[in-house]
Amino acid sequence: MFDLDAYLARIALPVRPTRDATGLGRLQHAHRLAIPFENLDVILGRAIAIDSASVFAKIVTARRGGYCFEQNRLFLDALAALGFTARPLLARVWLGATDTPPLTHTLALVNIDGRDWIADAGFGGSYTPVLPLADGAEIEAPDGARFRLETGEHGWMLLRDGDPMTTDGRDESSGFRPQYSFTLAPVFDADLALSSHWSSTAPGTRFLRQPIVSIVLPRGLAALTGRRYRLGAGQSVDIGEITGPEDYRARLHDLFGIDLTADEVAALDVF
Predict the structure, then answer these.
(1) Residue 70: DSSP 8-state
(2) CA-based angle 8:48:222, to the nearest 5?
């Protein structure tokens, strides 16, 4: 059984959200403000389990973060416990891509009173508010960025136009830029398991190259990629490089609420 009260306490949401688009948006935003995106277990050589029990134990009970397949599994379980009708989708991330990228991201399709919405509690690069599934739909995020949905040769494409400082730094371009594309094809647990396994084990993938941690701020994003950190919130911008393992541990705790031992930080091989 999904412990909804424990999940809501983890994301610091004091009351259950209403079962409508407003409630969906509140739930997603609270999730992203409280739970960091991170691949630290991948770098530490630990297998990533994306079944409901394992994800709950890691993110809620142990108060860790996770990447999209973990985050959106937890989010979908919470939606089900709240009475929402939702299912997973798979997506191709276009940030920095030169060829058609693989299906390495997942998000949620939520139906509310006959209308479809997309929600995403697990994209580490920026924050996208809940959007209606409609060609040309646009919305503004709390950091001032605008997001738009369009249809095209790759199905649905989500685009972002905003200050690159409130992203994880993968794309510094201006104007609407492709973030990820997806179709509405049915997605089964085996599909998610396959994509997650490839993302966390295939040589050369982004998640195997270096530790990645990020979290949404009320008006921005904090990101830690390898030794480099960036924090963009409103007019405040802070970019720099961490100089040692103790500083790294402190920033993990202070910015992202993640507590690793000294041995675990050493095993990340950042320094």
Answers:
(1) H
(2) 55
pTM over 0.90: yes
pLDDT at 164 over 90: no
Task: State the average pLDDT over residues 177-191.
Answer: 97
Is residue 105 part of the annotated active site? The answer reads yes
| Cα–Cα dist 148/146, whole Å | 7
- Of the candidates 41, 77, 120, 143, the residue annotated as catalytic is 120
Return the SS3 of 160.
strand
Q: How far apart are CA 163 and CA 140, in angstroms?
A: 12
Which among 29, 41, 77, 105 is annotated as catalytic?
105
Choice among 109-123, 128-142, 166-180 with the minimum mean pLDDT: 166-180
Instruction: Name residue 156's beta-bridge partners.
Output: 151, 182
> In CATH, what number is assigned to the domain containing residue 115?
3.30.2140.20
One-letter amino acid at 76 equals L
- Per annotation, catalytic residue among 29, 31, 41, 68: 68
Q: Per-residue pLDDT tens for 191-205? A: 999 999 999 999 989
Count up the domains in the chain and report the number: 1
Tens digit of pLDDT for each residue in 82-113? 999 999 999 999 998 889 999 999 999 999 99
Sheet containing 138-140: which strands, arranged edge to edge?
A: 131-132, 115-119, 103-112, 85-93, 177-182, 155-161, 146-152, 138-140
Domain encompassing residue 174: 4-267
